[in-house]
């Protein structure tokens, strides 16, 4: 503990010094004129972008949008969230506008066809008529909808950046009326509110001091908007200095080992947008100020290669959809900014795809990124371990396990959870991830939801009790062993529960590369008086009980054989659905392995092996 505190104090000092250096360099190198993505692309770079698969896909979609009518989502859909708590109905329409503007902008930029510009102008004027660009889930008191305040959120900041880039690239092509209206709205909704904060006339938005993804995402959108729209160099410099100052809160959200407790999906979203912001500042300072070269970004940047389990699959810890992958465009930006690649293919939407296009070296060959997965990756601060086949050609399973605590960012009550991947093709069992967000997801009833509490996770249920929230629930690492063929992690999970009679609860994970591989989860429990005990596993798909102590799990064409042992104690096996709606459309089952009689002491082992290949 003392070591961690000392590290954090030293880390904070490094951040302060780095921020001062960055601000000085920004002052020396920031472009005197406004800058926007795509401004400095050479003709050859533009041609390469136009010929890319990404641009061609955008053109196909833009052609579809030319014929589409777009409903105006105010006031009915906006107020629907207040009545029902449903976030999806408004956001689906809002996203239609976002996607259409991105595709039409790419199509016009790469072809110059007037039809795309005409439709783009139509949508721009509609968006400018929106009472607010802030999502209803972020405007629960309707202060933005009513016009009482103008705040900046995830959606409005990115809408601002997208439209600011449109204004920068196409200002000479847009009709004067559309150009004036767009400039007015960008200043009113993004630039002026943020400038008031930068001069101290308005308190920072709540997210500016939060150690979470909102910080990086919103600041990225603000950066792109301010760079493109604000003509006054002094104001631009002042606002970007404020961006640099507050962006350090986001970097501080990562643990010293680089672990992202918000989950891999939020590494994508948060650090991905930090990379966008870094690329914009780098290009707007004539490639002088590179935020990726500071010490604070080095550990978070290693997270992707250390958290991927196998085949691109990630553990669905925290609020991470089980289908999530680390996005290639973020890895590409990282490599391009650090000079680890000269060229990567354009990826992403408009205006994001313009950034790597400008960072790439002209006439250089595209170099694909190589995945660098070590046999075992351990995040000691995050209390997460990832186990892979390594050099074994025969081993067919890989796994990730977590200790942690129940007060993490985007927390689930999941101390002791895990995920198993078969053949690098599918997660057959483990942590199923988050629910589809609604009004109650981030409220006081979060842990009444079985998806968020420990019922929906493959963890024990001693004395009939679920885990409790709070930072004091930390798992304690008791033992770690590894050799060429195996890895063992043993955790003390007792603090995750509030059971006075429980004197011991240890969970060990044993991963073996022998043969086709195996993964064993052993729970050892002791009570001061007899109590009930059950453990659970989560079946992502099909489930069969082949015998009293043998199960078969199947998902996406991959199967695991599950052997159950309780040292002779009788037990039952029962399956139940987990109430709620999961992201990714997953409909998992909770398989409870429950001892028939109360016990003072027990040990339950669950061993997973791949079904033999035919």
Description:
With 614 residues, this protein is α+β, with helices and mostly antiparallel strands. 36% of the residues lie in helices and 19% in strands. It contains 14 helices and 17 strands. The strands form 3 sheets. An 8-stranded antiparallel β-sheet has the order 7-8-9-10-17-14-13-12, with no helix packed on it. A 5-stranded antiparallel β-sheet has the order 1-2-3-4-5, with no helix packed on it. It has a 4-stranded antiparallel β-sheet with strand order 6-11-16-15, with no helix packed on it. A hairpin with a 3-residue loop joins strand 7 and strand 8. Helix 1 packs antiparallel against helix 10, helix 5 runs antiparallel to helix 6 and helix 8 packs across helix 9. The longest helix is centred in the first third of the chain and has 28 residues. The relative contact order is 0.08. The model has no long low-confidence stretch (mean pLDDT 95).
The structure class reads: alpha+beta
Rg, nearest Å: 26 Å
Total number of strands: 17
Give the proportion of residues in helices.
Answer: 25-40%
Q: In order across it, which strands form the biggest sheet?
A: 7-8-9-10-17-14-13-12
Mean pLDDT: 95
The termini sit apart by: 51 Å
Q: How does the major sheet shape up?
A: 8 strands, antiparallel
Can you count the helices?
A: 14
Shape: elongated
What proportion strand?
15-25%
Question: Would you identify the regions where 5 or more consecutive residues have pLDDT less than 50?
Answer: none
